[in-house]
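Notes to self after the call with IL:
- keep both proteins in one doc
- input above output, always
- annotate only the second one for now

Protein 1:
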Amino acid sequence: MANMDFEACYRALELPFGAGLKEVNERWRKLSRIHHPDRHARNPKNYQIALEKQKQLNNARDILKKWFETNPHATPPGSTSGSQQTQNKSANANTSNNNANKSQSNNTNSQTKQGTQSKQQSHASQNQRQTNSQAKSSTSSQGASAKPPNTGWFTASELKLTPMQDLVEKIDKHCCSGTDPSFLGMILAFAAIFGPLFVISGTLGSVFPELPGHYPDWLMMTMLGASGWCTCYIFRWFFAEAELIKLQQKEMYFRSGRSLGDTVDLAKSIIEKHTVPNGSWRFVAAGGATEATLHFEEEVFPEVKRSRCLKIRFEARPGAYAVVFAMEVKATSPINSFSCKRVAEKVVTDLKKELQEIAA
């Protein structure tokens, strides 16, 4: 695919040879909408055919775009076979006319001249072939070297963790990084299970010292229920906070078969689709990137609300063979950021459905 000549590029785009860059881009967009792999996702065979067709269209557009960027007012050179045939035909026609008009005494001179001209034409055609082959090889090598990398170009913003989040990250790395549970992890698990029960029983004993040493059955069941609820909440909060921290440390890259503008519009529509009842997204352009911010309040306990801020910064650039989309997620919330985690994960999941994720 990388060695396509200019005539093959025009044939792939279904354009007449010599069409300008504007016509090339318009036809590429039109054919990309028709042959995009996402339109054939349910049929694996048609999906592979559409994927190869899309790669062929992208490669043809890239080769012609590279030529017009270097030579904005020139037409790409065609193959030498057509011009050589035209020259041979015109030479034969001129030779027959000259032989018909000239006398028989000049046949020897005309044949000598014809042989000289044919030798010169053969040398000229060989030189033309060498020039075209060198131009194609230089164009392909320049295009390969000039193609930007797919990953590594997106600069993530600094991640600022609260002291509580920093503690959660350290515990998660120490206790949950290996396959076997560590001793510290088991101690913390037992503390999370039995700690709330001891706290509740100690609180009842200090508030109501007249209670007997053996609590009534109904009070004991109530204490066990409250302790179980606290234990479940602690585990849920810890793992949610740890997953959100890991998500904020990632730089995610995706490959898109759409244009730059369509890719950015798709990302905005996906982000706007996932929000909370008392918040709305706000998009601000920051250099080449776009930052989406969501401010809202989350109820951590009955009648107790805390402010939350979720930011998603993303940018799209031309990649080696397609548009590359990069993004990061940052959440500002002291603790209990369940809603931030839920919204961020839904956005990432929908982007993975629409785009192809690239390993960073």
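Protein 2 (the one to annotate):
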Amino acid sequence: MFNAIDFARFAIGTAAKAVAKVPAVNTRFHIGDRLNGPWPEGPFLWMHGASLGECKMLLNLAKFLQEDIENCPKILITSQKAEVVEFIKNTETNIETCIAPADTQHTMAAFAKTVKPMALILGENELWPGYLSTMRRLCLKPSVAIVSGRYRASVPGIDFSPIGFASMQTGDDLSRFMNVAAKFNIASSAIGGDWKLLPWARKGEPVKPAENPTVDVAFVSMHMSEWTSLERMVESSIKRQESVVLVPRRLEEAETFRRALIEEEYTVVDWPLVQKGAISIVNKFGLTGDIFAISKSAVIGGSFARGLGVHNFWEPLQAGVATCIGPFSAGQKENAAALVREGVIIQLRTTADYPRRMLPDSKLVSTFLAHERTKIQDSYQQFIAFLKSLPGFQDGTTK
């Protein structure tokens, strides 16, 4: 039956084919690749995430599955963003990656024929209707898992029956999701925390601040639309002769930030050079771990302008870095509110709060994250059990 969702997918596909003929648009958004591939030859355990944060989480998850399940199938990670695909290709793993297929009938049929997905793992909130319907058609039992899920709303009428496992970040996420998905009798669900913390949770290491940090403050995942707030905070730090690192959310904005800072007569250097009274700009993906290892504090972007979404505050927390966010926390409101309430992160209601901010106690942060570790470990074991119940995984055993 051709329903409203199918009609919308057909219309989007038709429009995308037309737009793909515009060279500038196609080059920027890789529409032709998303419509036509190429796709790698399967079968695969298929993982999908929207952007770098989700895909870094899925990349770590993929490595752990290869460690924990004997005869683990080949793994494919897809993303809508070409720069994320390139980042995964450069990680020197045996995990394959390609641009995510567009959610149209023709594309999904071609993708499924080549990739032959055995199961699909969705990171956070990537509930594409065609991805789910494709897995329903291919698999004998529900073979889709949501991990580190965040849920607000989804396309009306979406069929959740292919989902067999859902680990949501918070109780509110799980409650909202089950309100719309309960009739589909999802076999296993959990409040599993944010799986960006999974590597830390597995290691069991304590939260420990850097002993001799050389970076006073790292502004991470900042957007150019947050420039006004950023400049005020940078000015405050530079007046105190602090060492500052700036990590743009989008690499293409690095030079825009550089020009804006130089125009304001700040001293600008390139990472990894760090010096007092200067701003070090990072223009490569995947370096936040190195930065946090030598940082005293971090300010997380996506939180200083409406219409964005606060970015990953868990990474600096687990590294023992005192962490601040701005007044907006879209996409992570429940988690952010709990962390602020417990004194684990600091929320700057205005940039005037920045110079006099009180940094969180690392012992308090460690205690809070210990609870997150338990949720993540328990939900991961449930996830392993779900995978091992699926055809194609039953010959392997947990190590």
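Annotation: The domain at 217-365 is CATH 3.40.50.2000 (Rossmann fold). The mean pLDDT is 91.
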